[in-house]
What we know:
Elements: E1 2-7, H1 11-22, E2 27-33, H2 36-46, E3 50-53, H3 62-71, E4 78-83, H4 88-97, E5 101-104, H5 109-120, H6 128-139, H7 147-150, H8 177-186, H9 192-199, H10 203-217, H11 222-231
Parallel strand pairs: 1-2, 1-3, 3-4, 4-5
Helix pairs in contact: 2-3, 3-4, 6-11, 8-10, 9-10
Amino acid sequence: MIRVLLVDDHAVMRAGFRMILEADGDIEVVGEAGDGGAALAAASALHPDVICMDVQMPDMDGLEATRRIVADPDVAASVVIVTTFDRDDYLFQALAAGASGFLLKNAGPEELTAAVRIAHGGEALLSPTVTKRVIERFAAGEPMADAEASRAPASAPPRGGATASTLPATVAVDLTDREREVLRLLAQAMSNAEIAQHLFIGEATVKTHVSNVLQKLGARDRVAAVVYAHRHGLA
């Protein structure tokens, strides 16, 4: 079972998400929270696999909650931002905070369940269009566009490696030819299954290569690895 925590300040929205997710037998909603502070407590107590996180909430918003959850060594959950607003600054900050994906609330039910499964599988939930928007800004070293975010204190590097915003501009790595090819395909927003098909290898082998790439880069997630690829002309 994939254990999910729902974080949204609207109870009706949480109820709708719960109904959609629990319609599939492999997903269980283990808890709900109405703001970022409650999300921190629930994540620590319930140990979910995936957290569906709203952005605009009272007391503590979803972006700050994501930063704190990702930085907590005792919480291993992947965070998927689910928001009404298709804003570049939210997207940019969410991924900088360590979120594994970004989904709009007008997405279909199947997209929500797919997002949870993708995040649980360790992949980044980013469409090629969204990836292009993010990569262009990260790779150029562009600061957060939102003025309020620019005043936020920097978080400590999260568990398991650097995020896209904390990965150093230069990283000494020794990637094999195959690992470089996998990284190049990651930078094209390909999934593990798509990379496997493209390279005529098994998906399990792709997962091993991706894991090796992340380890060598010291990157926490695929987004950080993709940013590195674009910064260094490997895409």
